Amino acid sequence: MRFELTPRASVAPAMRALAPVLAFITAFLIAGLVIWLLGRSPVAAFQVYVIQPLSDPWSIQELLVKATPLALIAIGLSYCFRANLWNIGAEGQYVIGAVLGGWLALRTHGTEAGAWVLPAMLVLGILGGALYGLIPAFLKTRFGVNEILTSLMLVYVAQLILDYLVRGPWRDPKGFNFPQSVTFDPAATLPTLGEASRVHYGTVFAVLAVLVTALVLGRTLFGYRLRLTGDAPRAARFAGFSAKNTTLAVFAISGGLAGLAGISEVSGQIGQLQPSISPGYGFTAITVAFLGRLNPLGILVAALVVALTFIGGESAQILLKLPLDLTQAFQGILLLCVLSADALVSYRIRIVSRGGRK
Amino acid sequence: MTADVSSSQPLVELKGISKRYGDLLANDHIDLTIERGEIHALLGENGAGKSTLVKILYGVIEPTEGQILWEGRPVAIGSPVEARTLGVGMVFQHFSLFDELTVAENITVALSGNWTLSRVRERLGDVSRAYGLALEPDRAVWTLSAGERQRIEIVRCLLQNPRLLILDEPTSVLTPQEAEHLFVTLDKLAADGCSILYISHKLEEVRRLCRSATILRGGRVVGTLDPRARSAREIAAMMVGAEIGEVRSGIPHEPKGDMLEVRGLSLAPADVHGQALRDIDLTAYAGEVVGIAGVAGNGQSELFAALSGERTVERADIIRIAGRACGTEGIDARRRLGAAFVPEERLGHAAAPTHRLSENTLISHAAAEVSRSGFILLNAARRLAQGIVKSFDVRTPENDPQARKLSGGNLQKFVIGREIIRRPKLLIVDQPTWGVDAGAARLIRQALVDLAGEGSAVVVISQDLDELFEIADRMAVIHQGHLSPLRKVTEWTKEAVGLEMLGEAQLHGASHAV
After folding, report:
1. Using the 8-state DSSP alphabet, how is residue B102 labeled?
2. pTM value?
3. Cβ contact B355–A232 (<8 Å)
4. B375 domain-assigned
5. Closest residue, chain B, to A231 (C-alpha)
6. Domain that residue B282 falls in
7. I need a labelling partner for A48 at 20 to 30 A (CA). Which of A175, A201, B77, B201 fits?
8. A188-219, pLDDT tens digit by residue?
């Protein structure tokens, strides 16, 4: 016996819209079962995971803070994934963006450098991420090296570079030997949106990136080029789109946005360089991109949902003594449910008995 | 039936085998007998039904009608596994090997039963020695040449002691030396009693190897004969059909300036299954249809890629379009010079299957008014798609459907219409009516002729000789990457074309001096 997926002749638009909702409900049911098996109350967990963060203004701010890098990186990744190119190294591009932008903050530390510092830092952040993203792209176009492997391995290189810098040359001399840099000057700090808020300008960048991407993917020849490259590579070549240039472009864009996320997080949120500047945003953003079905607005929503699981997961750890791994497991379950729902909407499962003849 | 003197029963007999795909009868009551220890050739042009017949014999597809007798006993071959159990081995034209594994590993993973790596290694030595199939068991496959890879496939079959070995166009990827080596092996195998079904369209090698041949045309057996006893001319005529096609009556064209000029085009193949192009000269004048005939796999797709600019050549002046040297320029630049192209593959090459027709107009965006300064003009694209649908009678299941929802004929009308509707000065089409129903084929041919009539140059690469005789003004034949001189269609006979297609023209003096 085996299963076969046969495409459905037509798909009701209502079904397509309903699919993610059903996927969410299924994911919550599965997660509830797991929590119940762990001997905790699923209802209490739901309360802690979902209701509580959404009913508290502080956690709503926190939600936006966490969703910002996720959305920025995932939007960038959607360019790659649409063209069927697999940038798995956004985490590394994020780190290098933070390093290059952070370098300027440290260079100008304690000087009277003016308002130019912050924009220059952001530009350097984008540049750093883009150049770092171009390494796997170049290796692929020039030597045919698989971009999945190189982009992933470069993550560790980036993390170790950062680690070396903050333990070595960039360490704060007055920092009691803690592996961290000096705190950035106000001129090198990304301002928050309003007084006493934790939400910084990175959120604005994320929203801008979503809007621009929606325009680019839906209305421009470049957006069509990515779709065509992903859906029918030979047709893309026939259309005169060079696969090489497409690869370089999407890696530069996704690296640049990851770099922007990195420098925004460091200058708007952390305020200094330290060995760890990300709880794995670059990897989680891959989930976010697919949860959002590579659609810019979908990605925005998905980033908020995944950020919620981050915050809920932290509270659940404190209040219910649930392991933090459960949060990651839940993100995985959610992704599987959404992808399965998508597949089931467009395909029908057929069970074929042995051999499948006739 | 051949008057074979073998007293024993034949190994395999196919009786009245038919295979129907919708309206298409791919095999039409085929009878075929293979004696023990004989090398039997299955000859025919592409699309003659050879592959279908062989797949039936190897259990890949089920016949609609007919009977298979194995040593006189009726059998149903339900799957390749059943075929192998019966004693049928098959070497496909395209290899199925894991590049990263060694020779011995590749063989072991493919064998069913209790084969271990050490036993394979041991038997590999025996088989290699017995049949001159030298193979190093521990070499990784990616380091091997095409000929050596084929040996792996053959050895893999031989280890299962087949009674019947089927080889599908085995020499298409081999050098002449490797091919000769293969023939020696096959002779030895046959001498040991293994029957061989040898599929080919190369007359020369069939005459070298086989004493009996079955010739297919249009899904039917047109003859079973001894290829050594008949002239190449006679066999070629049987393969391509002897009757001369209806030559289109039209006004004789005055050459009005060349739209396409190719001088000394040579190009290395893109991969092992590709065909190199050798020193091709080709001119197409405004107002004429130039036909390029040939059996598939003789360099047609490479020629299309080089003419369209999907692959560029090293010197600009090798290819001129509308007088401009453009050999080093890509497909967009050539489109802007007024050229248009339609590749052989409709889905995936000419059109993106999951994209709507309006989006598919963007594929030739460089020359169509569907974008402005990088932005897509959605309404213009929709209007253009509708215009194509209307003028080329494209039947669609809904308004602006995805390309994959169209039938082959309708999609072909669309992709050809997409190019013709902007009146290109030069149109290059690869297999314009391949797998298309008769009605659509007629409409497409008419559109091509009309375009030439309006003063454009049209180059049609086609395997369909009747089609070329119907619409072309001048014609050449491509064989192993070399193009014969262009001559007026009225100066060609089908027989002469057939000989060129088989590479026999020089041998028989039926044609030209190169």
Report:
1. B
2. 0.75
3. yes
4. yes
5. B352
6. 247-338+424-514
7. A201
8. 999 998 877 889 999 999 999 999 999 999 99
